Amino acid sequence: MDKFKKLEQWLTNSTEETIPKATISSNLKVVDLPQLGRCIVAAKDLNTHESVITIPHTFMLNYITVLMHFKKWNPALPFSESLAHSAIYVPDYSNFKDNIGNFYRSLSEEEILSLNSFQLISMYLILEKRRDTDSFWKPFINVLPVLEELQNIPFTWIINKSQKEDEIFQLLPPDIKNHSIEQLQKFEEDYKGVSDLIDKHSQYNTKDELYMSKDEFLWAWLCCNSRCLYMELPKKLNKTTEDNFTLVPFVDFINHISDDSCTTTMSSKQGYMVSTGNVKYRENDQIFFTYGSHSDNFLIMEYGFMLPNCSNKSNYLDITHIINKLLNQEQIDFLKENHYFGLQYATIEEISYTTEIALATLQDFKNGSCSKSLRGFIDGTYDGAKYTKNNKLLIKKIFAKLSTNTDNQLERIKKIRLQTPEFEHFKLDVLETIYLNSKEIEKCHL
């Protein structure tokens, strides 16, 4: 039996009455395609608003379910059952005496709750993977992507070396590069937090049973980041917005599309539910839902993929770094005070209002003085007609400069490809797509 069938059997065919059962339509099938990876297709025609998947909370891996499993290892932990969204089945761990189990039993409430969702779930995934057949989560862990499948995410390119050492990373646009560096810092902080906790319990770390390498933690952390779905945690946990996520087996095979497709619902009793929404699927059609109105740049940074052939309607071009060079410090401070700093971008269809404001400020905020026209433009009481002509000229200059830079970068990518080992060509493929997307937007404003 292949791993996908085993996953479905684990979710739906429990013989124990105490374990809730998932429901997965027999009209769905999982396929693993070379270019698309794991995805779900219609095995038969599907009607609109047809319920196709329901995954109970028992099988959803998140802060709550991990807490419930830890409480089963150590009943003395004071976690309240009211933290659970619904009854969560947890196996009996009383007969397990391994070091990983002993580590779980040794954790205090304070230590566990000090971890954020990324730290807790990443640590738990790694340790449960090591427990192998003893782990309740084995069928889910077995279908998670391996690290090599997540290497398109740019911040992973500089995990084990400085950003300056990676010539390809340096070719990324400034907004992607900056976001990637922030991601790397967050990852490093999470890895240190978990490593410090494990070091405190070194008595259970014989033969390095608990030690986690950076690559192992990266695998688990990326599984969380690239496969998470929104689920609000109870306020009593006092967690941040980014902690509000869950992993949902089987549902995480559904790929993203910009337009609405399947409909998803979170039920406190039934769990995570998927229906076909307003879409009729034909046999062998791939099933989609939207992850949100995300640009390709966001998708590659967070999930490791982009939509094909410049097809993403949410793509935009960040031009903040160019406009900032045109502004003096007084103008920058003025934009910050009015909440219009650092938000300049363009899509295929339009220049953002924030860009228009920044360019109007460049023209009409001088010697610390804001004109009546500029104030009206910012407040929405004036249409900014006096700035239109010069704004158009400035925008053409900006996009001419951007277009030249994009052409230069695409040429550099071609040359570097000839000198780069084939196993690193995937990075150049990512870069090329990013700049081709930019080219599509630039052409619309020249």
Task: Give a quick rundown of the structure.
The protein is an alpha+beta fold and 446 residues long.
If you had to describe this structure to a student in words, what would you say it looks like?
It is globular and about 75 Å long. It has 446 residues and is α+β, with helices and mostly antiparallel strands. It has helices at 3-12, 63-73, 99-106, 109-113, 117-131, 138-141, 174-200, 214-227, 296-302, 320-326, 329-337, 353-364, 372-379, 385-419, 425-443; strands at residues 23-24, 28-33, 37-42, 51-55, 61-62, 229-230, 245-247, 255-256, 263-267, 271-275, 288-289, 317-318, 345-346, 365-366, 369-370. Strand 14 and strand 15 form a beta hairpin. The protein has 15 helices and 15 strands. The longest helix is centred in the C-terminal third of the chain and has 35 residues, at 385-419. The protein starts with a helix and ends with a helix. The strands form six sheets. A four-stranded antiparallel sheet has the order 1-4-10-9, covered by helices on one side.
Could you state the order of secondary-structure elements as H and E?
HEEEEEHHHHHHHEEEEEEHEHHEHEEHHH
Rounded to the nearest angstrom, the radius of gyration is: 25 Å
Largest sheet: 4 strands, antiparallel
Multimerization status:
single chain
Could you report the average pLDDT, rounded to the nearest whole number? 90
